[in-house]
Amino acid sequence: MPTPFSSLERRIDYHFGDPTLLQQALRHASLDLGVEDNQRLEFLGDAILGLTIAEALYRKFPHADEGKLDRMRAGIVSGPVLAAKAGELQLEQYLLVSDAQRMHHAKPSQSMLEDALEAVIGAIYLDGGLTAAQHTIAKLFGEQLSQDMHAASAGTPKSRLQEWTQKHNAGATPDYILRSVDGPDHARTYLVAVELSGQVLGEGRGSSLKAAEIAAAEAALQMLTAE
Question: Which domains does the chain have, with CATH numbers?
């Protein structure tokens, strides 16, 4: 019998034995449900996604060193990629948020979509096991996993910044400093500065700490490469 989530299950190519897991994966923290929202599933899904992508890259590129594998993995599980995948699945239609959240933000933020996608992966893992979760991940990220090594290892802004600083500053690596956090718990805005040996290279804002760090790294790269 069709359910409200039938079309989503078709897109992820998985049918839930326990649909309450999928429902929980789509409950945003703004609903103030404690452990019944999607944050615990997001935590689990993030780990499952990282493991699956890492193993796929390890097997596909047997001669790639740890640095290249890490850059490839980071690029595939980056925020923009996850948000784009969530968009393809139309998770925005299913995400449950509070009235207050919807009043102030008509559309889900990128970080909300990222978290929801990872929570769905976590829900699949709990419902069907690792093989089921890996099948969905392979389906969703097939395009990224099919890239050649050069394209896949281009790296995220954070990895590119680290490569730059190591090359030009005797192996030194940048530090990310949280400057401030504003807004209610379900709609935080983070301000992060990236520093090298005490010198600020750039600052960035985002709806998650990870997004703010990426924005700071992008700002630093623009400044450094413009010099």
Answer: 6-154 (1.10.1520.10), 158-226 (3.30.160.20)
